[in-house]
Amino acid sequence: MRITFTAVVLAVLPLQPLNADSETPFGVLVEGQGAAETYSVCIACHSEKIIAQQGLSQEDWDELLEWMVDEQGMADLPEPLRGDILAYLTANYGPDRPNFPAPGDGT
Amino acid sequence: MSEAMSKREPMNKSRATADRRQFLRNMSLATLTSLLGTAIPFHRYLPQGFVPVALANSLIDGKDALTLLNDRPLNAETPPELLDDPTTPTARHFVRNNGQPPSAADPGAWVLEVDGLVERPLRLTIADLKSRFESQRKALVIECGGNGRAFFDPPARGNQWTYGAVGCSYWTGVRLRDLLNEAGVREGAIYTAHYGADKHLSGDPARQPISRGLPIRKALQENVLIAYEMNDEPLHPMNGAPLRLVVPGWPGSCSQKWLTRIRLRDIVHDGAKMTGKSYRVPNRPVAPGEKVDKADFEIIERMPVKSLITFPATGAELVERTAQVRGHAWSGDRSIVRVDISTDFGASWRRAELDQAVNDGAWQNWRIDLDFAQPGYYEIWSRATDSGGLSQPSAIAWNPKGYLNNTVHRIAVRVS
Question: What's the Cα-to-Cα distance from B252 to each of A23, B95, B158, B323, rounded to whole Å?
């Protein structure tokens, strides 16, 4: 039943409007300077949903990007790309959590 | 994931999943009712963008209304009120993945190796496990080390689990201890190292998404299992099919999924997420937001005393002045000796009726009948105390990675 259902849904996907509701062209990430760069670099390995859950200071985002390179196999990011991503994350996903997803979002 | 989904590339899969959700939100009533196969009597009350539970379930095959935190890697938790059963149905057991699960896990061809500092390395199929070792069936608590992280201030990085990264299902398998005895633990072995068949998110085959271990003394405990069944069925793919470790009472990351190898080592295992700050807390109390040197972090072992209110759901409106309130309580490597309930913000407490655990490593169920003096807004708080004399605190012992939040569970109800 579920596989049938999945097949039905996938078959009609192209007909659906893209990014209506709360989603932007960058999935659940809010729009803003650096959003496109952040989205395209990060989703190479993981969903943007893990990004949107965070509320980190610039220092902590910086450390997290380092950890991605040192421990998780991400390629070194050249400037100004790295700076743009860091600025976007800090501005939109800081400790005051201005864009924290509503509970249950995504189910 | 269904077969159709699992054949797609990871990035497409993420996109497809997001698109499918979008589709579910945007579809017309006619589409909705045809997918459900029935009419929706109260359809005019359905909010715009609402995904009926019956369809949301299909977003993770075999899981029922979990809250999705992340879809690549897949991480999903269970709302507390859906953990109300005495033990946890498979459909309501949380999922915490670190990497990409194996896409085709053939139970018949699966091999577990036990090697390293052993007298006789073992190479065992699941059929070997069943025929050569005594089988065990136990209800065992698995809780993610980061359960409750969402309430840290300042926020701690990682999946923002609230309450439901915990479950207590029946697991059937063999004791890790029996395998280690069969292999013969050599002098000098102090730690196990666990390896699974999931792949690192970067796609780099040289990297492990996660490889954690246990001190030998823990690995030799009676209730540490290598499980091939969950609730009397083969394991759910997202819960480690066809073979996994179940280490009750310790961070869920010790319970390696898709288990392929256990190696005995003469050092504290240094695999992925054993080192740095992963599954570690500072060796001293720290201020919220304090920077702590890597060298000052210690590996988390047992999980702390905790309780959960699973009935009623938070936000419930009670039309009568009396209600049964119930839930579970657990503490790693310890038992629960009492559970106390408050309806006046902790000013006074009443002792709940508490069951024994069905076996060592299971959570304990509790219940209490409450009377509410007058209509109004109430919070119901639950606080467990364990056999070591420790109770749940009211405030979070903040730590940089957001582990071990075992504060009292609070729900809100309105009595009308």
Answer: 32, 10, 15, 33
pLDDT digits (tens, 9 = 90+) for B93-146: 999 999 999 988 899 999 999 999 999 999 999 999 999 999 999 999 999 999
Cβ distance B258 to B244 under 8 Å?
Answer: yes
Amino acid, single-letter form, for residue B2: S
DSSP 3-state assignment of B78?
coil
Burial B221-249 (b: 16+ CB within 10 A, else e): bebbbbbbbbbeeebbbbbbbbbbbbbbb
User: Which residues in chain A are contacts of B56 at CB distance < 8 A?
Assistant: 107
ipTM: 0.83
The answer to whether B352 contacts chain A (CB < 8 Å) is no
Chain A CB within 8 Å of residue B20 CB: yes
Residue to mutate among A47, A62, A67, A97, with most B CBs inside 10 A, is A47
pTM higher than 0.90, yes or no?
no
To the nearest whole angstrom, how far is the Cα of A70 from the nearest Cα of chain B? 12
Considering only CB atoms, which chain A residues are within 8 Å of B160?
53-54, 100
Q: What are phi and psi of B310, to 5 degrees?
A: -110, -10
Q: Does B14 touch chain A (CB under 8 A)?
A: yes
Between A18 and B217, whose confidence is greater? B217
CA distance A99 to chain B (A): 13
From residue B217, alpha-carbon distances to B176, B180, B189, B190, B222 in Å are 12, 12, 10, 8, 11
- Give the Cβ contact number of residue B396 at 10 Å: 18
Residues A27 and A48: beta-carbon distance below 8 Å: yes
Q: State how far the alpha carbon of B231 is from the alpha carbons of B59, B91, B127, B167, in Å.
A: 22, 10, 19, 12
Q: What are phi and psi of B4, to 5 degrees?
A: -60, -40
Q: What is the spatial distance between Cα B323 and Cα A39, in angstroms, rounded to a whole number?
A: 48
